[in-house]
Design goal:
single chain; 231 residues; alpha+beta; Sulfite Oxidase, Chain A, domain 2; globular; binds the ligand Nc1nc2c(c(=O)[nH]1)N[C@H]1C(S)=C(S)[C@@H](COP(=O)(O)O)O[C@H]1N2; binds molybdenum atom
Length: 231
């Protein structure tokens, strides 16, 4: 497909997706909670900058399952499939040819550290969804890492404008230990919802739990509700 045709389709499809999820998104706790738990000044999406139980760190700790896959760019692919009209398998070059988004956001790890004001560049999940065109029946996604990690998200969380698949942090290629070449970030939820070394995004017509969600962490992961563990 022509690049210009591709970006026209993304713009049109993005508007439709925004309209479809606008109200659900507006009602998610990370933007609508009347009594959010936390401290500090109000952040970009209206919540206290430091969620309850979190401590700000300047360093960036590394958390993984004991294995850091090293994927050369010429072998890197991103598959987006499942309940979508146009499944894709993107090469590195095709990924970089998609609309690029710069954003500043915060990172809240469930192990109680938060790193604030991180500068990212990548492709928004909203643009990727617009490219593949989720079916009307799609409600969730399951993300897969090259290390076999999985994590799930509802579409009203996944399609927020600050959810990005990032390849650049502070102007430099994202380090392998932090999930490079490409990881996802979820600034309005605990950071385990963002898969490092992301390989595949599957659109689902019902919720399916990921690795940590099956192993005791919360399905929803709202930092301003101290929503860390499953009941
Ligand atoms: N593929 C993959 N993604 C992952 C993880 C992982 O083990 N594998 N750990 C998660 C957890 S628990 C956190 S807190 C963040 C940590 O990201 P960092 O190591 O860059 O700080 O990545 C999340 N994404
Ligand atoms: Mo974590």
């Amino acid at each position: 497909m022509e690049e210009s045709e591709k970006s026209n389709r993304i713009v049109e499809s993005r508007m439709k997706l925004k309209a479809r999820f606008e109200e659900k998104m507006r009602n998610t706790p990370s933007v609508s909670d009347g009594a959010p738990k936390g401290s500090g000044p109000v952040n970009r999406h209206g919540m206290p900058a430091i969620p309850i139980g979190q401590t700000v760190t300047v360093k960036w700790p590394v958390l993984d399952l004991g294995h850091q896959p090293d994927i050369p760019l010429n072998r890197w692919t991103l598959t987006i499939d499942g309940a979508v009209e146009n499944p894709v398998k993107l090469s590195w070059k095709e990924f970089l040819a998609l609309p690029q988004t710069d954003d500043t956001s915060d990172f809240h790890c469930v192990t109680t550290w938060s790193k604030l004001n991180m500068h990212w560049k990548g492709v928004s999940l909203l643009d990727l969804a617009a490219l593949v065109h989720p079916k009307e029946t799609a409600t969730h996604i399951l993300c897969y890492g090259y290390d076999k990690y999985t994590t799930n998200l509802s579409l009203e969380e996944a399609l927020k404008p600050d959810v990005l698949l990032v390849h650049t942090f502070e102007g430099q290629p994202l380090a392998v230990e932090h999930g490079g070449p490409v990881r996802m970030i979820t600034p309005q939820l605990y950071a385990w919802k963002g898969s490092k070394w992301i390989k595949r995004i599957e659109f689902l017509t019902e919720n399916k739990l990921g690795f940590w969600e099956k192993n005791g962490y919360s399905n929803t992961a709202y930092p301003w509700r101290n929503d860390r563990y499953s009941d």
